[in-house]
Amino acid sequence: MNAGRTTYAVPRRAHGHHHGAAALSHPQCAQHRPLRLGQHLVLRKAGRLILFISVLIWALSYFPGAGLEDSYLARFGHSLAPVGDALGLDWRLLVALLASFVAKENAIAALGILYGSAQGASLAETLAATVPPASALSFIAATMLFIPCAATIAVMRQETGSWGWTLFGVALLLVIALGAAALVYQVCRLLGFGLG
């Protein structure tokens, strides 16, 4: 063993070769093939869903064509303003948070669509320039505690065998996430931190 590094012995076959790509045909390794295939199918389905939601968000932010602030998505986002005020989130952050319900990755896609980026600036630079730190902390708290993705809710339903318990779990997570985000924002506000 080297300082700070751990080495592992690689098992050898009876005739002295290391297990490698050819070992996948070995009967003992055949048990892992369905898992790999299942993971691949899940990733393909998730990728398609994320792409679909991203295109949907883009379309809703583009139409009816007068600009982002006059789009269908902006109208929906502005209707959530009372919730956003308590959390320190503008309508774009609220829409990104809601988009993460389908898959957490959709929050990034939604932020990219809704905030765009200044010429030559990355999304991170654009967000840093436009979102006050207190709002960013509130958004992070809400995202981390927000309702898990739709697939997780389907598993919750399957495991509990009850829509009642599933909806209770979703509602509880929603209350915890929004409560924590509001607490973070209000504490920042009281301390005068990062209000932009």
What this model shows, in words?
With 196 residues, the chain is an all-alpha fold. It has one domain (33-191). It is built from 9 helices and no strands. The chain has helices spanning 33-62, 72-79, 81-87, 91-99, 105-115, 123-130, 133-145, 150-160, 163-191. The termini are far apart. The relative contact order is 0.09. The model has no long low-confidence stretch (mean pLDDT 83).
Q: Tell me, briefly, the overall form.
A: globular
Helix content: 55-70%
Terminal residue distance: 52 Å
Largest sheet: none
Mean pLDDT: 83
Percent of residues in beta strands: under 5%
Task: Count helical runs.
Answer: 9
- What's the assembly state of these chains? single chain
Structural class: mainly alpha
Q: How many individual β-strands?
A: 0
